[in-house]
Amino acid sequence: MRFMTKYSGFRKPAHRLAGAAAVLAAALALAACSARPSSDSRPLVLTTFTVMKDMAKSIAGDRLRVESITSPGEEIHDYQPSPEDIRRGADADLVIQNGLGLERWFEKFTSQSGAETVVASKGVTPIPIAEGDHKGEPNPHAWMSPKNAKIYVDNMVAAFSKLDPSHAKEFKANGKAYKARLDAIANDMQKKLAAVPQEQRALVTCEGAFSYLTRDYGLAEHYLWGVNAEGAMTPKRVAAVQDSVKKNRIPAVFCESTVEGKMDAVVQATGAKYGGTLYVDSLTDAKGPAPTYLKLLEYDTKTIASGLAGGAS
After folding, report:
1. What sign for the dihedral angle of Cα 90, 139, 276, 304?
2. What is the tens place of the pLDDT at every residue in 227-267?
3. β partners of residue 96
């Protein structure tokens, strides 16, 4: 199975496209020539980003080899797959994408591939993006709701059971145990966020990546742009967020780890505190505060509750 198209989200001159095609052809040739039996005979599952890798590993256990196309800290929306990604993709038995428009490069990436693909968010009721160039399109960050994450788990269990039927019972048991942990996390999130005073229950972020979380836990939502894209932040949107923060006396604002620094103008103009960095599209490494998806939910919830209650500095 080979991924045969390299995608950039922008138009390029013909000579640059020709050069890119040559690089891609070389990468594919290398993948074909270097393909050899691996010492690890388990089926290879390739996910598009680290959050799904962590979820998939929890369900797969030791039965499957699970890897992520992107690394910790990388931005997912406009990611440009490298020749190395193509090489790894050539060996994959299953590729899992989030869907809902998150991976804008995915269709191009797999257009000439015979790889089996699964949409982890299948069955999720999407929330439309409310502002910006992508207004009306599905908000792709559905995993930020533990309720939706349970749908992801069921889709992965089904996909893994089809890939490796001999271990289907194990995948089902792992999925059941993981969903129980999600329920426990959801209950803890409810308690922490319910403790935020009613007049301070507003989440202001750089990207509108928390629509599912704010819906589940009764917070108002404001953001600088709806979904990460080139030129997404405009002076008009910045001014609108500043007005909302001032008008509603919102005590703290936040920004995501992959786009840090974009909230500085709002902090300076409003006097609101910077409540902290939140994690959405990417986990941290093992030493960071969000090395797993469940830790990500716990850390974000604690950071939001602390910031809105005045605990941030």
Report:
1. negative
2. 875 556 788 889 999 999 999 999 999 999 988 889 999 99
3. 47, 118
pLDDT per residue as tens digits for the range 260-276: 889 999 999 999 999 99
Rounded Cα distance between 15 and 248, Å, is: 52
Check: CB of residue 218 under 8 Å from CB of residue 304.
Answer: no
CA separation for the pair 50, 86 (Å, rounded): 17
Residue type, position 132, single letter: G
The amino acid that residue 38 corresponds to is S
Q: Return d(Cα 283, Cα 50) in angstroms, integer.
A: 6
Residue identified by tokens 């013909």 is 14
In the block, tokens 């819906």 appear at 215
* pTM, full prediction: 0.85
Q: Which residues, other chains included, contact 271 with Cβ-Cβ below 8 Å and sequence gap of 6+?
A: none
Please measure the distance between the N-terminal and C-terminal CA atoms of the chain and give it in whole angstroms.
Answer: 51
